[in-house]
Amino acid sequence: MFDIKTELTTNPKEKPAPEELGFGHFFSDHMFILDYTDGVGWHDPRIVPYQPISLDPSAMIFHYGQSVFEGLKAYVTVDNDALLFRADQNFKRLNRSNERLCIPAIDEELALEGLKQLVTVDRDWIPNNPGTSLYIRPFIIATEPNLGVHPSKKYHFIIIMSPSGSYYKEGINPVKILVEEQFVRAVKGGTGEAKTGGNYASALKGQEIASREGYAQTLWLDGKENKYIEEVGSMNIFFKINGIVITPALNGSILPGITRDSMIQVLKFKGIPVEERQISIDEVVEAHQNGTLEEVFGTGTAAVISPVGELKYLDDKMSINKGEIGEISQMLYDTLTGLQYGSIDDTFGWTIRL
Amino acid sequence: MFDIKTELTTNPKEKPAPEELGFGHFFSDHMFILDYTDGVGWHDPRIVPYQPISLDPSAMIFHYGQSVFEGLKAYVTVDNDALLFRADQNFKRLNRSNERLCIPAIDEELALEGLKQLVTVDRDWIPNNPGTSLYIRPFIIATEPNLGVHPSKKYHFIIIMSPSGSYYKEGINPVKILVEEQFVRAVKGGTGEAKTGGNYASALKGQEIASREGYAQTLWLDGKENKYIEEVGSMNIFFKINGIVITPALNGSILPGITRDSMIQVLKFKGIPVEERQISIDEVVEAHQNGTLEEVFGTGTAAVISPVGELKYLDDKMSINKGEIGEISQMLYDTLTGLQYGSIDDTFGWTIRL
Ligand SMILES: Cc1ncc(COP(=O)(O)O)c(C=O)c1O
Ligand SMILES: Cc1ncc(COP(=O)(O)O)c(C=O)c1O
Questions:
Q1: Is residue B136 part of a domain?
Q2: Of A72, A176, B123, B353, which sits 20 to 30 A from A5 (CA to CA)?
Q3: What are the tens digits of pLDDT across the range B295-341?
Q4: Half-sphere exposure (Cβ direction) of A76: Cα atoms closer than 13 Å
Q5: What is the CA radius of gyration of chain A?
Q6: Within this chain, do residues A121 and A188 fall inside the same structural domain, yes or no?
Q7: For residues B125 and B7, is the Cβ–Cβ distance under 8 A?
Q8: B141: nearest CA in chain A?
């Protein structure tokens, strides 16, 4: 068992109204912290009132970006339980990110236990309007006060939580996505498959260009040949071409999404053909031209299943499935949210009820 | 003129002894801060006692790595003046990094004025033993408390300063460098030419591998073909082959080093042939094999001119100039340090005496 000290707030915040939630603005009353010191290891797991972090201005996180993070959610089920979805996978992935960023591994069991206790303490912060959830952000930052470029000797591992509105305010609206051909998010041998700040900082520019043109997100191509499809800003991407669902294989430069993995398993379970392989933007353009590009959708914790209604590549605007949600996308959306909100029986063993 | 408020410390720190300085451990008594708020712009430039920064745990710098930085030095000249070297170029480059990272541009004049005043306030912190200097670290961090992935609406621009020992404790010792062939630092279209945290986080792994094998730093190859030479961890690289000095051209993925630019100008001024162009690791290996690889050296603010005594690529250990400093490296070192410590007349107009 783990000894996690808990200090409860004496000053609980007022909870925001469901309609003003949005994403990532509000934070619950408590947070989980675990510290690392070279020679001591990870120590002092504790739940404390949500509060500012005070760091020396030379703390490495401010200079050399040594950081990793995760994103998952807690849901209120139809039976009024609190539910976590595949949270163990998030801490596994966090440790793989740690490995790439030269951050010492955390104890995944301890992290999961800390998370469960934190969600229990702030149980009332999980909103329960349809589509809402408590977004959970575990993250690790390098805190050693030192300007040398080397792995930090000190870290904070922190979990904060943010009640979040539905991604889809008025039903599922297919999004418009711009294929970026100039800027690159990641390359083989880089940090693309790790969930680390630098990947997101690097992606802001493409995002800015997409927004300016009226597109919701960027679809990234590979960094070597600017040709193969990688992923979208915060989701993995799937194409249904001629009855077969295709998603880029995990090649070292894209994030191994947990929703991606789950949806591949669901597709296989349902007997729908699914392939993880290299897929070029040219193949997608060609499929669109010959009428076999049937559906495109993204998968991610925040975006759930997000149908894509338009893809723009160079001067080519490709409308997909008349801008409407496709059959497979709808099925996956219903299955995923059914599992997450507890209205479908979890035969996969993915959910953790608290 | 700029109105920069100054609050002096009432509790000055003891200065470290010259022999314990090292790099980036100690910090002077004051720091410069400038804040950015969306709708207001950059505001409130001030010099305050060196102190911790307190941020919400959701501050964007902790999650999405939106940050840029610079590195330069103040020197004490032979006439006991404080001297800055091409500081205007650092703020120019900071703004180019800002552009890539979607951070609002700073007023370069204000930044330079803030720096001058800060160095003047902490004048006694510039060490004056041979080879020592006051390392200066301007940096910008995204501070908006929000988990949405978008450019922050709030930033801190901060300058801190660290008295630093000589890079070369016992005369100039050529370093051993490992050519990395698996991991990649940056790729065209990415953030390689910006000075942003993510590039350094990404490079830690290669650095770790190099250290383990007894090498001081990593030489990075390009991300597309793993073939062309880019730069070293914290310096640009030069090769003298058959009488000609060659350095990789600025191609979008390497940092446009200010020392690099200065040394190219010095070489041209002295009539020594110098080329900025693509150069592959194969060309270097071949030059080594046929005996025309005469010198290799790195250039950087911290490393000054750093001769390379050995390059290892795959299983090939190339010893360069018998592991000794070459003629050109020595000349550049003498010229650069002569300008920086004021023993050589500055005909380039690069130095700012305070
Ligand atoms: C770059 C990127 N790709 C994909 C995903 C989807 O991953 P997951 O399904 O684990 O949320 C995310 C979001 O977390 C992401 O940030
Ligand atoms: C990656 C990298 N390349 C090159 C340099 C050298 O640049 P400069 O000469 O401006 O210090 C540095 C150090 O600042 C660096 O971090």
A1: yes
A2: A72
A3: 999 999 999 999 999 999 999 999 999 999 999 999 999 999 999 99
A4: 16
A5: 21
A6: no
A7: no
A8: A62
A33 with A59, same domain: the answer is yes
Residue B25 and residue A146: Cβ atoms within 8 Å? yes
B111 and B253 in a single domain? The answer is no
Number of the ligand closest to the Cα of B234: 2
CA triple B324-B293-B340, angle to 5 deg: 55
Co-location of A155 and A221 in the same domain: no
Residue B298 lies in a domain: yes
Cα Rg of chain B, angstroms: 21
Interatomic CA distance for residues A309 and A25, integer angstroms: 28
Count structural domains, chain A: 2
The domain in which residue B331 lies consists of 175-340
Chain B residues within an 8 Å CB radius of A147? 23-24, 135, 137, 162
Q: Which of A166, A200, A234 is the last residue of a domain?
A: A166
Which residue has the least CA distance to atom 12 on ligand 2? B234
Whole-angstrom Cα distance, residue B184 to residue B204? 11
Instruction: Chain B: give the shortest CA distance to residue A232, in Å.
Output: 12
pTM comes to 0.98
Q: Are residues B247 and B197 part of one domain?
A: yes
Provide residues with CB under 6 Å of ligand 1: A 71, 231, 234-236, 255, 257-260, 299-301
Cross-chain Cβ contact A189/B200 below 8 Å: no
Residue B151 Cα, gap to closest chain A Cα (Å): 7
> Contact B154/B38 with Cβ under 8 angstroms?
yes
ipTM score for this prediction: 0.97
Q: Are residues A130 and A242 in the same domain?
A: no
* Spacing, Cα B234 to ligand 2 middle (Å): 5
Give the Cα separation of A57 and B152 in Å (integer): 19
Two tokens at B151? 């450019």
Domain boundary among A166, A196, A231: A166
Distance from the alpha carbon of residue B337 to the mean position of ligand 2, in angstroms: 17
CATH number where B136 lies: 3.30.470.10
Chain B residue numbers with beta carbons less than 8 Å from the beta carbon of A66 are 197, 200-201, 204
The C-alpha atoms of residue B45 and residue A267 are separated, in whole angstroms, by 57
- Pick A184's closest partner by Cβ from B150, B190, B199: B190
How close does chain A come to B319, measured CA to CA in Å? 26
In a domain, residue B346? The reply is no
pLDDT digits (tens, 9 = 90+) for A163-216: 999 877 666 889 999 999 999 999 999 999 999 999 999 999 999 999 999 999
Best mutation target, B54, B147, B208, to test chain A (most A CBs within 10 A): B147
B353 falls within a domain:
no
